[in-house]
Amino acid sequence: MIEMQDVWKTYPNGVNALTGIDIQISKGEFVYVVGPSGAGKSTFIKLMYREEKPTKGTIFVNGTNVSELKNRYTPKLRRSLGVVFQDFKLLPRLTVYENVAFAMEVIEKSKREIKKRVMEVLDLVKLKHKARFFPNELSGGEQQRVAIARALVNSPGILIADEPTGNLDPETSWEIMKLFDDINYSGTTIVMATHNREIVNTMRKRVIAVENGKIARDQHRGEYGYED
């Protein structure tokens, strides 16, 4: 589903964020990306949905050569992925239903299709009863559930998450991780950057550790492996 071949990323200020990355992530895997602050985790994640472009090397995502993708095709790529952020990125003037539906409206699905699918994913994240609420009427955990529903509504094969529990309390974080686990169990490939040691050490998925822009560890059923 995801492959990086000799990928380098150097920013305009001369900082080498990633150096010679070679990695493969297969369909149905659940992968944590861990490492110290400034190690290159966010760049690693952003390259997958083309928020950043590699300076050198080749990246394939779901069969698409992202490194050579023309800018005008980037929205199409992102519509084939689900992306979840730490700060939710919900549209404040839209209801829960409208926030999730928006992702289907941009690809011109019918109103009937939209209503059916939106209610399905809101039921999955246990927020069907709050479809008419606005983001500011929800807790942080509920807002993240809406963000996950929006990421899932177009049935992506890959879900990319950048610190999705970073702004949540421990109990809510575990609820969100249980949801991610269920999503992965249904067949969706998940790649998640996180600083949450307890979650990584308890769930024991594949762990890719990034240090100084390089892959330091790649372990199946791995552990976090860093001090706070």
From TrEMBL:
Which GO BP annotation is one of this protein's?
cell division
**GO terms for MF:** ATP binding
Q: Which InterPro entries match?
A: AAA+_ATPase (IPR003593), ABC_transporter-like_ATP-bd (IPR003439), ABC_transporter-like_CS (IPR017871), ABC_transpr_LolD-like (IPR015854), Cell_div_FtsE (IPR005286), P-loop_NTPase (IPR027417)
Where located? Answer: Cell membrane
Keyword list, A-Z:
ATP-binding, Cell cycle, Cell division, Cell membrane, Membrane, Nucleotide-binding
Which CDD domains does the record associate with it?
A: ABC_FtsE (cd03292)
Gene3D superfamilies (UniProt xref): P-loop containing nucleotide triphosphate hydrolases
For membrane topology, the record states:
Peripheral membrane protein
The UniProt record lists the ABC transporter domain at 2-227
Pfam families linked = ABC_tran
Describe the protein's quaternary organization and the partners it interacts with.
Homodimer. Forms a membrane-associated complex with FtsX.
Functionally, this protein is described as follows: Part of the ABC transporter FtsEX involved in cellular division.
Similarity comment = Belongs to the ABC transporter superfamily.
What name is this protein filed under?
Answer: Cell division ATP-binding protein FtsE
**UniProt source species:** Caldalkalibacillus horti
